[in-house]
Design brief:
The chain is about 30% helix and about 15% strand. The strands form 4 sheets. It has an 8-stranded mixed beta sheet with strand order 1-4-8-5-11-12-13-14, sandwiched between helices. A two-stranded antiparallel sheet has the order 2-3. The longest helix is centred in the middle third of the chain and has 16 residues, at about 185-200. Helix 2 links the parallel strand 11 and strand 12. The relative contact order is 0.14. The protein contains 9 helices and 14 strands. It is an alpha/beta fold and about 375 residues long. The protein is globular, with a radius of gyration of 20 Å. It folds into 2 domains: about 5-185 and about 295-375, Alpha/Beta hydrolase fold, catalytic domain (Rossmann fold, 3-Layer(aba) Sandwich), CATH 3.40.50; about 190-285, Rna Polymerase Sigma Factor, Chain: A.
Length: about 375
């Protein structure tokens, strides 16, 4: 059992559970979350932050496992674009995650809610982005909030934002999907499958029951993370940060010399293993692969937003080849087709997909400006 498994997380437990899109029922449902700022008297200043594939609920504080700053601390906090002096910010660990919400590393129960004395592990049922959003909606309701001022997220978090706006349009005033898409492309599914196969090929995977053997498939999970991380960066960013530099000098021996980029990827893989569960990785990557908002509406993305009252700000990055600007434009065209209130910004950046997590002043100004404008029209 790794360090992440032994942590205690703030959570709400819903004894009635949740019925998933696959038909399975999970009971009880546990949703781990964090909040920042204060809810005002009218409960009208709540913003939900949706995390990406490898994120979690620790959006704006020191992470309890890695000891690093929150993954969106540039964006969320006192005086930040998502200003916690004014807004009550909520972020939950997604259903299927491994930081306290119901997922593969949580104790398995039968449909009556009876504990079975072992983790779900590989037996955890498949979940969808829509399942994740339904679980979040239970949390929001439990916190006494009937309508969110905004829902914000990047990458897989952006998928959740789109699902929120489509599934619960009356419960969302504004939405900011960043570096995302209305479906997962064949290329992205292919990259995920490489990562999943690396996990399955690890001798310590044991058919997903590695917990029975007191081991984790660390090598496979690290390779999965390394493969994915390449897609988060642009060629320009890799060249700028690492080029062809060697860690040990200009002479190659081919035996133990490492290029700087190799060392960086190995570090990313090794640190990821400390805080993430392999079965959760399998579960969440599949949820992303299943996501296709238009398929839920007869093949029409526009129908997903028909008559929507939600105000949208769609943001993409010029060097993002994982979720390129063309995919954001598809969302914008669908929203325009139903006369939705939508703004769109493509931010010039050479940082690739990860730009939404980094110090990008144009992103900060865009988010702050959109929220300020939306607040002027909010009840």
């Amino acid at each position: 059992m790794d360090q992440a498994d032994t942590l205690s997380h703030q959570a709400i437990v819903f004894e009635e559970g949740i019925t998933l899109d696959c038909g399975a029922r999970i009971r009880p449902l546990r949703v781990a979350y964090r909040t920042y700022g204060r809810l005002n008297e009218t409960r009208s200043n709540a913003i939900l932050i949706c995390h990406a594939l490898t994120g979690d609920q620790y959006v704006a504080e020191t992470h309890p496992v890695t000891g690093k700053p929150g993954w969106w601390q540039h964006l969320v906090g006192p005086g930040r674009p998502v200003n916690t002096d004014n807004f009550f910010v909520i972020c939950s660990n997604v259903l299927g995650g491994c930081m306290g919400s119901t997922g593969p590393n949580i104790e398995m129960t039968d449909e009556s809610g009876k504990p079975l004395g072992r983790p779900w592990g590989i037996d955890f049922p498949p979940v969808t982005i829509r399942d994740m959003v339904r679980a979040q909606a239970k949390l929001v309701e439990a916190l006494g909030i009937t309508k969110l001022f905004s829902v914000i997220g990047g990458s897989m978090g952006g998928m959740q934002v789109l699902q929120w706006a489509s599934l619960f349009p009356s419960k969302v005033f504004s939405a900011i999907p960043i570096a995302t898409a209305a479906y997962h492309s064949a290329q992205n599914i292919a990259f995920h499958e490489i990562g999943r196969q690396a996990i399955h090929a690890d001798p310590n995977f044991h058919g997903g029951r590695y917990w029975e053997h007191g081991v984790v498939p660390a090598r496979g999970l690290a390779v999965a993370r390394m493969t994915a991380h390449i897609t988060y960066l642009s060629e320009e960013a890799l060249n700028r940060k690492f080029g062809r530099r060697l860690r040990t000098g200009p002479m190659l021996t081919f035996s133990n010399d490492l290029f700087e980029v190799e060392s960086y990827l190995q570090y990313q893989g090794s640190t990821f293993v400390r805080r993430f569960d392999a079965n959760s990785y399998l579960t969440i990557t599949r949820a992303m692969d299943y996501f296709d908002l238009s398929a839920e509406h007869g093949g029409s993305l526009a129908q997903a937003f028909r008559h929507t009252p939600v105000r949208f700000c769609i943001i993409s990055f010029s060097s993002d080849w994982l979720f390129p600007t063309s995919m954001s434009r598809e969302i914008v065209r669908a929203l325009n087709a139903v006369a939705a209130n939508v703004s769109f910004v493509e931010i010039a950046s050479d940082k690739g997909h990860d730009a939404f997590l980094l110090d990008e002043p144009v992103l900060f100004r865009t988010v702050a400006g959109f929220l300020a404008g939306a607040a002027e029209r909010w009840r």
